[in-house]
Amino acid sequence: MPIAKFNLRLTLALACLSGASASALAQNALAGFYGQVGIGYERTNTSNNSVVSSAGGSSVILNPTGSNPHRSNFAGAIGIGLYVPIHADFLLGLGAEYEPLSQQTSSYTVASPGQASLNGSYKVSNRYNLFFSPAIAVNQTGLAYAKVGFTGQTLQGNSGFLSPLNQNQTGYSLGLGYRQVIQGGLYGFVEANYYSYSKPNAGITSGNTTYAVNPGVSAYNGLIGVGYRF
Q1: What span, in angstroms and rounded, lies between the C-alpha atoms of 98 and 72?
Q2: What total number of domains does the chain contain?
C-alpha cells in the first residue's frame, strides 16, 4: 500500500475517533461526580390508621374519625452522586440523599370503648434515599433521568397516646428529573419523588391497655435546586 494512501486512511480514522470522542464528551457534559441541594414542597400521608386496643384479654379495633393524618410542608434535600457514560447518550448514575427537615402530620382521633377519645399525630424525620439513576442526554448540556431506590426514615409519635412510638421504617422510592448546565460545572435541576414505606407493628402501653398501631406511610415531593459537577 502506498505510504500516501496509508497516511490518508490513518488520518481519516483518527479524525473519526477524535470526532466520536469529542461528541461523547459533549453529549455527557453532566457526567462525573456531583453534589447538590434542593428545596421545595412535600406531602406526607398515613393510611389504615386503625388501632387495636387490648385490655383484660380482649381486643377491639378502633377506627379513626375524620381524615387520615397528613401534612404538606416545606422540604429540603442534600445529595451526592455520580453519572457514568455507558453508551452513546445513555448514562447510569448512583446517588445518596438526605432530608434534614422533619415532617409532622395532622392529628386524628379514635374513640376507645369506655374511655375518653384518643388523640395523636406522627412525626417523620431522618429520611434518606439510596438510588440507581438511568439517564439520557437530551442535548450537550441537559440530562433527563429517572431514580429507583431504597429509602428509610424514622416514624415517631408526635403527640397524644402515640407519643411513645419510635420506629425505623424502610421502603422504596421512585423519581423523575431534569438537570441543565448553567455555566461550567454549575447546573440547575428540577425533580419529583415518591416514597413508600413498610408498615410498623408497634405496641403502645397506656395504663392497663395496649394499643397496636400499623399505619401505612407514603410521601411525595417536588424539588428545585442547584448542584456542581466535579
Answers
A1: 18
A2: 1
Residue 210 has phi, psi (to 5 degrees) of -110, 130
CA separation for the pair 38, 191 (Å, rounded): 9
Alpha carbon distance, N-terminus to C-terminus of the chain:
47
CA dist., res. 177 & res. 192, Å (int): 6
Rounded-to-integer distance, Cα 192 and Cα 78, Å? 14
Does the reported pTM lie above 0.85? no
pLDDT at 14 > cutoff 90: no
State the cell numbers at 210: 395496649
How far apart CA 48 and CA 68 sit, in angstroms, is 8
150-172 core/surface letters (b: 16 or more CB in 10 A; e: else): ebbbebbbbebbbeebeeebebe
User: What is residue 57's DSSP assignment?
Assistant: T
What is the three-state SS of 109-142? EECCCCCCCEEEEEEEEEEEEEEEEEEEECCCCE
pLDDT digits (tens, 9 = 90+) for 124-138: 899 999 999 999 999
Question: What CATH code is carried by the domain that includes residue 192?
Answer: 2.40.160.20
Residue 64 domain boundaries: 3-229
Cell triple for 137: 442526554
